[in-house]
Amino acid sequence: MADREVPPDHALPQTGVGLAMERILGPAFVTSPNYGTRVTTLMLVDKQNQVEYHERTFAPAEGQVASEICLELSLSPEK
Fold first, then answer.
1. What pTM was computed for the model?
2. Cα dist from 43 to 9, 13, 23, 49, 56, whole Å
3. 2 secondary structure, DSSP code
4. Tens of pLDDT along 19-31?
5. For residue 13, which of 63, 72, 75, 78 sits 20 to 30 Å off, Cα-Cα?
């Protein structure tokens, strides 16, 4: 989710926004002055019903982590 590499032009989709915008939107993590990735979330659940939740919020246009939440909890088994 943090990949900022711009794909080559031939690998970009043609969604009608123009090549310049396709280049901005191409990476998994988008950074631009007017548009970009704001939050990424990861949730892991293992076979023992242990849950890890990670959420990062990013500063607008900078792409720097502004805050991070990490939680761990256990789920009750189904009855």
1. 0.73
2. 32, 29, 29, 12, 12
3. -
4. 999 999 999 999 9
5. 63
